[in-house]
Amino acid sequence: MLQWKGVMPAVTTKFTANDQLDLDMFEKNIKAQMEAGVHGIILGGTLGEASTLEPDEKEILIKASLAIADGKIPVVMNVAEQSTKDAIAMAQQAEKAGADGLMVLPPMRYRATDFETVTYFKAIANNTSLPIMLYNNPVDYKIEVTLDMLEDLLECSNIQAIKESTRDITNIIRLQNRFGDRVKVFTGVDTLGLESLAIGADGWVAGLVCAFPAETVAIYELVKAGRINEALEIYRWFMPLLELDISPQLVQNIKLAEVATGIGTENVRLPRLPLQGGERQRVLKIIETGLKNRPVLPDYKNLRSNA
Fold first, then answer.
1. Nearest-angstrom CA–CA distance, 185 and 201
2. Could you give phi then psi for residue 9, rounded to 5 degrees?
3. Distance between CA 202 and CA 100 in Å, rounded?
4. Does the record carry Transferase as a key word (predicted)?
């Protein structure tokens, strides 16, 4: 059974220079994530360039990830399709391919009403047996999953978690006050990671973890063990890098960071292009400064958690 907790990277999709899936580099990155102690991986999200992936490529990524994970961590597939029919088909394809769970975005390219959004999510949940994490990000997708909407959605027993990206971390408290342990709450904003965990978030769907897995997991484990000051020291170092996640060019930013740490390439899929000019130099400087001052981590894998 999928345990909705811990650090779950929204992994980047690796491409070769001729725009094919780069499964060798993908495997190198996933192994680095696992070695650092992540608790699961999420494929084909915004950071994974979902909108440019073909259905067969998504299936290849699921199967490759399952082979690498070897049952040690769950593999979660993102669902972000243009129609309800396609979303159901993607969910069923992921289940057939062996995925352990789904992260589901609201309807894309259409600002659905609350009723339409609930109907959409229920249609997907009722057509798969996989456990589901809903993605609540009204800042980027202009659709909010309110507490009342979520209460309606919890009629579906396989809706079990929510990625909370409203930028209002007090919503974590509201969710837990209302639904208790029925809904596992993940923070989805890198620059609110520590704060969200400190007030009780169950996990962190992270972005810069793709390049810095150990530092991200260390923050999670230290917070859950009650060692906030040690976590905060790492987090302060990390913040300029984490801010690379809250940008329209987050894919390019994070892929540049992956290059710097040796677990990725800069290849993106059109219409995206690698960063150019002054912006590229700005991002590189942030990455280089971060690497130069990279903290020495405690033995975070062997902490006694208070969680």
1. 5
2. -65, 135
3. 18
4. no
**Do the annotations mark residue 259 as ligand-binding?**
no
143-195: per-residue pLDDT in tens?
A: 999 999 999 999 999 999 999 999 999 999 999 999 999 999 999 999 999 99
Distance of alpha carbon 173 from alpha carbon 162, whole angstroms: 13
- 83-111 CB burial, b ≥16 within 10 A, e <16: ebeebbebbebbbebebbbbbbbbbbeee
Q: Is the pLDDT of residue 109 over 90?
A: no
d(CA 184, CA 162): 6
Give the chain's domains with CATH numbers. 6-302 (3.20.20.70)
Could you give the percent of the chain with pLDDT greater than 90? 93
C-beta atoms surrounding 225 within 10 Å? 17
What values do phi and psi take at 76, rounded to 5? -110, 135
Query: What is the residue type of 252?
Result: Q
Q: Which residues are catalytic?
A: 135, 163
Task: Give me the count of residues in the chain.
Answer: 307
